[in-house]
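Task: fold both queries, return C-alpha cells.
Query 1:
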Amino acid sequence: MDIAHANEDDKLKEYCGIIGVYLSNHDDNASRLAYYGLQSLQHRGQESTGLAVADGEKIDHFREMGLVAEVYNKEKLAALKGHIAIGHVLYSTSGKATIENAQPFVSRSKLGQIAVAHNGSLVNTEPMKEFLEETGSTFTSSSDSEVIIKLIAKNYKKGLERALTDTIQLIKGSFALAVMTEKTLIGARDPNGIRPLCLGKVQNGWILASESCAIDAIGGELVRDIAPGEIVIINEDGVLSFNFGEKTAKKTCVFEYVYFARPDSIMDGIGVLEARMKMGEVLARESAVAADVVIGVPDSGLGAALGFSKASGIPYAMGIVKNKYVGRTFIAPSQEEREAMVFVKLNALKSDVAGKRVIIIDDSIVRGTTSRRLIQILRKAGAREVHFRISSPPVKFPCYFGIDTPCRADLISANQDTEAIRQAIGADSLAFISMEGMIEALQSCEYEEEGAPRKSEPSRESNHSASGASNCGYCQGCFLGEYPMPMIGELGKR
C-alpha cells in the first residue's frame, strides 16, 4: 500500500466508490445514470474516474484522471453506448495516482470480455500476483484490483459463476465488486462486509452502488444491502442471489458511519446521519463540560455536534464556515504550507464564538495538525474556552482494508495519551468517545432486515423495498489493532 498520500491532509481517506447499472431495455443508455451515480460518490475518490459499458455484444470503456464533472461531457457519455454500465471513482493508495491504476479494468480474451470495478484492499496481493505471473499473466498497473480481474479471466473457462466464486475464495481482504460481462452485471461483497455495497431498483432496471445516496440520485429505490459473502447476478432474467460459501462474520468498517459515507446514505440498515447524531449524544453523556455553544467541524463533525447539543442542552451554532471552492491541501508544496491551508478552507464566525465557551466536535484526530489550527482559528475569533470532543476513539493503528492511514509513527494517538494530545493541540479539554459508547450508538440505530437471501440457496429479487441488513459487528482495527483476518507478509509490520 502506497502511503505517500498520507501527507496530503490530516484526514483519513476512503479508497473509492463503485456504481453498476443494468437496464432491461437494450435501447437505453446506462452510462448517463452511472454518471449521476458517480457524481454522488465523488466524496469517496477524487483522483480518477472511469466507466465501462456493455451492449450485449461488446464492452467499451473510458478512464481519465480528475473529477467526474471535469472528465465527462455529453459527447463522451453518448459515445459510451450500452444498457449495462459500471463506474468507479478512485482515491489511490494501493498503487500511485496514475491512469494505469484508474478503473474499471477490462480484460479481453477469446472467451469474452470482463470489466471490474473494486472498492477495498487485498492483503494477499503479492502472493496472488506471483501466482498469476508464474502462469503467464502480465500486469500494467500496481493496483490490487488488476489481480482480481486477472483471476476471474483465468478461471472464465469454468463459467462465470465458478470463475467468480473461485476468485473470491482466493483473495483475502476487503472488497465490494461490480463485475460486468457483455450481457451481465454482478455484485459481490467480502465475507466480512467491510466495504459497503447495496442494491437498488429503477423503473426499468437495477442499480449496484457503494452508497444508497447514488441510488437516490438516479431516481431509484433502495432495495437492500448486499450481504457479506453474497454474490448477485443481474441479467435479463432478473436478480439471482447466492452465498459463495465462505464463513461470514460481519465486520463493517465503522469509519463509514463516523466519516466516509454521505450523511444522507443508509448503510447496512443504519441511517448515517442518525448514527452520527447518536454518537454525539453518547459523547455528551460521557464527556460533559460547561459551555455556551456547540459547533461541528464541517462537514464531518456536524451530525455529532447536533447530537451533542440535543443531549447536553447546549445551543448549537454554525461556528465555522467551510470554503467549498478551495482545492485539496496537498497542492501546497510543503508541510507547513499544507497546514496553513486550513485557514483558507475554514473560518470562524465571530458572532457565534466570541467571548464564549465553545465545544467543537470532529470525527477523529489523525496527526493533530488540523485540530491545532482549528483551535487557533477559534481563539483568534475570540473564543474564551475551546473544548475538543471526538466522535470516534483514538486512531492508534493503520487500516489495511480500504482506508488510507498514515504509518503508526505518524498517528498522534499511537504515541501520546489524551492529556499530551490536548496540550499539543492547545485545547482547554479533550475527550474521545469510548469504544463501548460508539458501538452502543451504532447498535441503537440498527433494525432487522426482511427477506435476506438464505445461504447457498438462490433467490429471486422481488420489486418491493426491503430494509437493510442487521449488523452483527464492526471492524475496529484502527482503534484496537485487532483485524477481521490475519495480516500477510509485511502488512502486519507497518
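Query 1 returned. Query 2:
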Amino acid sequence: MTEHLISVKDFAEQNGLIRQTVFKVLKRLEIEPTKSRGGNQNRGQTISYITQDDARRILEALASSRSTQNRQKSEESEFTEAALYDVGVFYLLSLEPEHDPSRFKVGFASNLNERLRQHRCSAPYTQVVKTWPCRRLWEKTAIECVTEGCERLHTEVFRANASLMSVEEKCERFFDLMPQLSGNQSL
C-alpha cells in the first residue's frame, strides 16, 4: 500500500519542513492523507501518507506563500523608502488661542491646508503658530523632542507647562539640527 505513497514525516524531513506545517497546508488544500497503523517499529502509531502529486502541490503552495511574503516585504520596504523622501511640514498649532492658550497640537502634513480643514471640524479656532520643512520620518522624533515636559492630552495634543513660545523655541532648535530641505514644501 505504501509503495507510491510517502509518509508526512519523511516528506517533511526530506524538504526541511516541520510536520505541523505540512498538516496545515494539507488542510488548506483540502487534501486528506491516507492513514495506516504502523508496525512494531512505530509502536502501533497511526502514520499519515500522501501521494507524490500531493507532495508536489504542498511544495507549490509553500513556494507561492513565500513569494507572496517576499512581495509584501518588498512593498513595505518601497513604502519605507518612499517615506524617507516624503517631504512636507511639521506644524505647531494653537487649538484654542483665546480660551486655552497653552493647548497645542504638533504633527506632520504633506498638505497643511487640508490638514487644517480636518482639524477645524473639532477645533474651529485653530491657528497655525509656525511650520518647518520636515520629512515624514522625522515626525515622531520631533514630537518627542519638542513636547518634553508637556502634558499629553491626546495622541498629538499637549498642554505646555510654560508657554507655547517655549515649545516653538524647542521646534526651532530641533529643526536647526536637522538637514536643510530644499525645494517647494507643501504648505
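Both queries returned. Flag for query 2: Residues 183-187 have pLDDT under 50 and may be disordered.
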